[in-house]
Amino acid sequence: MQLEGKRALITGAGSGIGRALAIEASHRGVAVALTGRRREALEATRSQLARSAARSTNCLILPADITDGAARRSLKALVAAEWGGLDILINNAGIVLAGPLATLADAELERMMATNLIAPLALTREFLPLLSAGTGSGQKGRVVNVGSVFGDIAFPLFAAYSASKFGLRGFSTALRRELADLGVGVTYAAPRGTRTEATPAMERFVEPLAMKLDDPETVAIQIWDAVLRDADSVYPRGPERLFVLIERLFPRIVGSALAKQLKQGGLGRLAAESISDVSIPDVSR
Q1: Model-level pTM?
Q2: Ordered structural domains, the chain, with CATH
Q3: Rg of the chain taking only CA atoms, in angstroms
Q4: Which member of 161, 166, 205, 243 is catalytic?
Q5: What residues contact residue 93 under an 8 Å CB cut-off, 6+ apart?
Q6: Known catalytic residue at 161
Q7: Where are the alpha helices (DSSP H) in the chain?
Q8: Which three-class secondary structure string do you get for 223-265?
Q9: Which of 236, 215, 241, 214 has its CA nearest to residue 225?
Q10: Of the listed ranges 20-24, 54-58, 172-176, the one predicted with least confidence
């Protein structure tokens, strides 16, 4: 897909990868609609577009909570009214919850699944008519789902997060096959750990699990390069690509390596201790 003159909606655009995606888009001549819950954060992203772009970037600020159905429908109406169509939908917004499953409350699980999985599904459904309408050149649109390497390699102490990203990867594959005859492409991006506002939530596990963290700018360049070449997926450069392949072919090897890292990092007993702290209600009466 040629990017010059295209229109992209980016969720979670107020920080991290979303902000970096918007800034990189401005370098490539892409008009951007920025959405997220905090208007001030979106305005801060827009101010960086103006400084980084060689030319003025067409930018819409659309504050919204994408986990709300009415907000999603409003986003679609606003984009349709302002632009009359959409070329690229980037489902980037996400939440990271790390730690033993026994420590996660229902509300936390529901919030993460609503943001990481249900919102991309529903938002894509809303925008499909705009994406499939095509551009002046006849080229159809593209959905970009920002997942994680954790959507391929199921990390201990990230069970819920991995579940949400495995789901997003499955959605991406199924949707790509579903939309093939319509000409709408789907790119699944699987960055490794990235230095964002979410980093503190997993900071204590970075060293014990030997996690390498990338800068958001590096991830954004890789994702836009993938869109440019109409790639089905994009993974980080480095050993993670090999680990993903090993996980698919020989999962026990990866499981044994992760178990060893947990033990060496002093995290091996964390899950068991957390489970022992969970009270079981007496329902015998």
Answers
A1: 0.86
A2: 7-276 (3.40.50.720)
A3: 20
A4: 161
A5: 11, 12, 18, 36, 66, 115, 119
A6: yes
A7: 16-27, 39-52, 69-83, 106-113, 119-131, 159-178, 203-206, 216-228, 239-249, 251-264, 270-276
A8: HHHHHHCCCCEECCCCHHHHHHHHHHHCHHHHHHHHHHHHHHC
A9: 236
A10: 54-58
